Amino acid sequence: EDFLAEQNNVQQSQWSPPEEGWLKVNVDDAMDRVNYLAGLGAVVKNHKGETVAAAVSTFKSSGDVELSEAKAVLWGMQAAAKAGATSVILESDSKGVIELINNKRSTLTDTFWVIFDIIEAKKIFQNFKAQHVLRM
């Protein structure tokens, strides 16, 4: 594997804080396939590991996991913006969504429109990184 591919797939056994001046946003989703609901969660932490914002939401879901993961990313970015973040590291365990955000692949599914909103929302921040992390 080349260095860039390795860098985008951060394998860590525990959460690590961002550098000073940055906020780290960790996002995830949970699917309730019986009731067609998805839960979105985001936690925003500073370089000391202190939580500066947290947000949860639900929406009616078609069962599309990648779409739900993308909505969790957008939700986390909105939480970071409300917390006054200027430099953000976004972490998700959805490799597909991170690849879409980082232009490593494209999609013609409904997820495209959420990715489009994420690309636009990135402009809010002075610095923005999106990286894949393994689920713990």
Automatic annotation (TrEMBL):
Residue ranges constituting the RNase H type-1 domain according to the UniProt record: 30-135
Domain of life: Eukaryota
InterPro entries assigned to the protein according to its UniProt record, in alphabetical order: RNase_H-like, RNase_H-like_dom_plant, RNaseH-like_sf, RNaseH_domain, RNaseH_sf
CDD domains to which the protein is assigned, alphabetical: RNase_H_like
Protein name: RNase H type-1 domain-containing protein
Molecular function GO terms recorded: nucleic acid binding; RNA-DNA hybrid ribonuclease activity
